[in-house]
Design goal:
Radius of gyration: 24 Å
Membrane topology: Peripheral membrane protein
Bound molecules: adenosine-5'-triphosphate
CATH class of the largest domain: Alpha Beta
Order of helices and strands: EEEHEEHEHHHEHEHEEHEHEEHEHH
Strand order of the largest sheet: 6-7-8-3-9-10
CATH architecture of the largest domain: 3-Layer(aba) Sandwich
Pfam families: ABC_tran (PF00005), DrrA1-3_C (PF13732)
Keywords: Antibiotic resistance, ATP-binding, Cell membrane, Membrane, Nucleotide-binding, Translocase, Transport
Helix content: 25-40%
Number of strands: 14
Shape: elongated
Subcellular location: Cell membrane
Oligomer: single chain
Domain ABC transporter: 2-241
């Protein structure tokens, strides 16, 4: 459904008085099959939106080629546009118009008859839990409802492939989870291929069949969420003790565990990665007890996508989320 080779996009900007060239996308290859939900995961400024704008014909690549939904990006941009849906970060919906009208007008742009546009629009409203919203002005809808309306507009012409740029940014956790269900069912009921960008780890994990991790315009990993997590070796054991002296003593015990790596101590907390926390813990707890180390807390963490990102780039995506 998407095949891209060597996509590059540079921007000329100014840093103070100096002219600099930013390589926003720096040699991206992508292969996406029909019916996949694929996530583009990366921190702010990683090049996600720029790649999406290239693939949706909104931006010309500086170099590289791509076929999108069977059409060559450079040779047949109109064919690409007809076959895809695109929901940008800011959304499509103008706030004064009534929701149903917006969706129908959008479909008319694609040369769809009014009758079919209304039928398809009503169907999408039902599927996206927007029943009763047809006559509602977009500005009187909640954030989650508006975002679902954006998605209805992106889908009303029945594209084979839909691009969603950060579909759940700004939504509360419940509205996000609700939208994930809807995006999942698009694929299940329509066989749509979905390509979305996100900087939420849980979103990529819960929703995507496959993830491309992008950093500084370069894809640093691509696989299923499970395989990516499996590529990080082992579980993390984190101990919290009473004081810093005990933390150092506990750290020495942790370092002695079979296959221990990535030990780290900060204040009264010390952690280590081991191949299997379940088999290491009983012996560890006994030896800590024998040393007279009193535990205030024990946590075991299976690898997360954040660990994957950390392993690949040396930085945490969570720092970015908090920013
Ligand atoms: N029109 C532009 N002119 C100059 N630089 C740009 C332009 N568009 C993007 N960039 C730069 O290219 C890089 C990638 O930006 P992009 O918007 O693709 O990142 P992103 O991963 O989508 O980030 P976010 O999660 O914040 O949307 C950034 O350094 C950005 O500042």
């Amino acid at each position: 459904m998407i095949r891209a080779r060597g996509l590059v996009r540079t921007f000329e900007t100014r840093r103070g008085r100096e002219k600099v060239s930013v390589r926003a996308v720096d040699g991206v290859d992508l292969d996406v099959d029909a019916g996949e939900i694929v996530g583009f995961l990366g921190p702010n400024g990683a090049g996600k939106t720029t790649t999406l704008r290239i693939l949706t014909t909104l931006l010309k690549p500086t170099a590289g080629t791509a076929t999108v939904a069977g059409h060559d990006l450079a040779g047949d941009p109109v064919g690409v546009r007809r076959s895809i849906g695109y929901v940008s970060q800011s959304g499509l919906v103008s706030s004064e118009a009534r929701a149903g009208e917006e969706v129908v007008d959008h479909a008319l742009l694609y040369g769809i008859s009014r009758e079919r546009a209304v039928r398809r629009g009503r169907e999408l409203f039902e599927q996206l839990d927007l029943d009763g919203m047809w006559e509602r002005q977009a500005k009187k809808m909640s954030g989650g409802q508006r975002r679902r309306l954006d998605i209805a507009m992106g889908l009303v012409h029945d594209p084979q492939l839909v691009f969603l740029d950060e579909p759940t940014t700004g939504l509360d956790p419940q509205a996000r989870a609700n939208l994930w269900t809807h995006i999942g069912s698009l694929r299940d009921t329509h066989g749509s291929t979905v390509f979305l960008t996100t900087h939420y780890l849980d979103e990529a994990d819960a929703l995507c069949d496959r993830i491309f991790v992008i950093d500084h315009g370069v894809i640093v990993a691509s696989d299923t969420p499970d395989n990516l997590k499996r590529s990080v070796r082992g579980d993390l054991i984190e101990l919290t003790v009473q004081d810093e002296q005990q933390a150092e003593a506990a750290a020495r015990r942790l370092a002695g565990l079979d296959g221990a790596s990535e030990g780290s101590t900060s204040g009264v907390t010390t952690s280590i990665r081991v191949p299997q926390a379940g088999s290491a813990l009983p012996g560890l707890l006994r030896s800590l007890d024998a040393d007279g180390i009193a535990l205030a807390g024990v946590e075991v963490r299976r690898p997360t996508l954040d660990d994957v990102f950390l392993t690949m780039t040396g930085r945490s995506l969570r720092d970015d989320e908090a920013a």
